[in-house]
């Protein structure tokens, strides 16, 4: 019994140290400690589930989406209840959609929809039903958005917000806060695309308030990067180029400080947005620097980047503007082939 008790105390200490690292923004230290905790556990035991959950959040917050998906798959294999299975499947649909792995996203969504039939028949539906429906709506939105079905994605996100509002009215400090944040971020992005900047600006005010609460409650400072992604895009579309540059640069700095910059899909997006800033200002050489950095980081990430291409239409256009027509045409040919 004593060795078992000592092992349990050691595991709890490592987990507590990981929590402290997360609260102070040291994401890489948190990851290392969580990996250490997992080595001390049976990987197929229920005790590994919360550690894997923290690790998945660590990866997802930093934009290490492939690693987040792999960790979630490990969670799914040891989920001890339909509720746990639900929360993991929602994250998997979002991760595979972001990675442009449509078949895996569709398979995870189909499994989630089948699970919902069981959940609706469960005794916990009355207390958890709105929460589970919000998760399904959020997953549907991810699949629709990745397929270019923006109207359907917007409807799904609004349904998510409706369900989460019911949850948060009953308990403002519930776990629904992060779901609410994620749905607002998604809606702002969809409103920016067709130029609905007034609506997006109003939603952005809500986003800032909710983000401050979530970051404090969940002790996940990396959420700041996710917020900066969408607020920077809004500033850019509003013509506030210097503000957009500042926001994107701050987000990239947060990722660099956590040793995440090169492999992160969030970093790839931030570099693409910084390139857009320079393109709008006609600074084509500066834009080229950001495009090259983004492409090099994605190439170095290898399979971890999923289906996210290193070459883009914006990159190709920049190549044309700096007199590299042959390279631009080659990139466009590759993009069309993909």
Explain the overall architecture.
The protein is an all-alpha fold and 338 residues long. 80% of the residues lie in helices and 0% in strands. It is built from 16 helices and no strands. The protein has helices at residues 2-23, 27-39, 48-61, 65-78, 82-98, 102-120, 125-146, 150-170, 176-192, 197-218, 223-237, 241-257, 265-280, 284-301, 313-321, 325-337. Helix 6 (102-120) runs antiparallel to helix 7 (125-146). The radius of gyration is 21 Å and the shape is globular. The chain starts with a helix and ends with a helix. The model has no long low-confidence stretch (mean pLDDT 87).
Task: Outline the fold blueprint.
Layout: H1 2-23, H2 27-39, H3 48-61, H4 65-78, H5 82-98, H6 102-120, H7 125-146, H8 150-170, H9 176-192, H10 197-218, H11 223-237, H12 241-257, H13 265-280, H14 284-301, H15 313-321, H16 325-337
Helix pairs in contact: 1-2, 2-3, 3-4, 4-5, 5-6, 5-7, 6-7, 7-8, 7-9, 8-9, 9-10, 9-11, 10-11, 11-12, 11-13, 12-13, 13-14, 14-15, 15-16
Summarize the structure.
By secondary structure, this protein is an all-alpha fold. It is built from 16 helices and no strands.
Question: Roughly what percent helix?
Answer: over 70%
H/E series, N to C? HHHHHHHHHHHHHHHH
Give the count of helical stretches. Answer: 16
Based on secondary structure, the structural category is mainly alpha
Task: Please give the largest β-sheet.
Answer: none
Low-confidence stretches: none
- Report strand %: under 5%
User: Outline, from the CA principal axes?
Assistant: globular
Instruction: Kindly report the average pLDDT value.
Output: 87
Compute the number of strand runs.
0
* Gyration radius over CA: 21 Å
Q: CA-to-CA gap between the ends?
A: 58 Å
